[in-house]
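Supplementary Methods, section 5.1.

A reviewer requested that the exact input to the structure prediction be made available. We therefore reproduce it here, unchanged from the version used in the analyses.
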Amino acid sequence: MKTAFLFPGQGAQIVGMGRDIAHAFPETAQIFQKADKIVGFDLARICFEGPAEKLNTTTISQPAIFVTSAAILQALKTNPATKDVRPDVTAGLSLGEYTALYAAGLVGFEDALTLVKKRGEAMQTAAEQNQGAMVGIMGLDAEQTAQLCAEARQDQILEPVNFNCPGQIVVSGHRSACQRAQELAAKYGAIKAVTLQVAGAFHTEMMSTAAQALSRALADADISEPADVKVAANVTGDYYETADHIRRGLTMQLTSPILWQKCMERLIADGVERFYEIGPGRVLTGLAKRINRKKKVINLSTLEALNQLTNS
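The structure derived from this sequence is encoded token-by-token as follows.
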């Protein structure tokens, strides 16, 4: 049975994440300790205790989610009952792609965390230079969402950027254009339109300065050539083929749409039967069920979930 490990992106963070697993597994606690030294501040404390306002900032949430996901992955690896659970393929939603590359053995922990930290800082800086926003549109297909953006754009930037699952697409662009899209959504038949709590217009050209900064950081990063474990690329829905392909994909992420539904459909078409969501929250578990209800999704976000897997 083919297995996929899935890793969440920004927005999955919650105060207390990783705390129970870090207390239960010394190897997991060591991941947080190592991370604190790399980022230069007490990341573990922010994950475990908050405050939420600090955890939710782009510069903190991105490394926090990566480290928590890596810590839960470490618990899975070191627990005698689950150490043989291994992926044939990995995938991550936007930021989660870094954890997917780490889990596949293509990027080391320090390199991945350093990149994630620089990514978060670059995105925050770009967001502060532009008045951007993102809106989740529920109930429209890709064509309807494109029509909505065309009407609401009015010579500003407004694009569909996150194709998450059937009936859930996120649009991103100038704040006023996003407001118009939210107001016009019902006209096109949307069930709901929700402003996302993010710093800016991610995955659009408004992040071009962040993409340039990240590209420079990726050029210096040690990235291995893909081998046994395949990694799905957000920007194409296909698998990474070379280390340079990975560098290009991670850079393009910041200014290009995230094709999560396409990634999942590719994995399913290639025979993946079992999916593990590894990291805080249940976002990908929910999206997977809307993409294909027949596939088994095992959510590993807490010590309780890990214990249930151990005892099953």
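The mean pLDDT is 96. These observations are discussed further in the main text.
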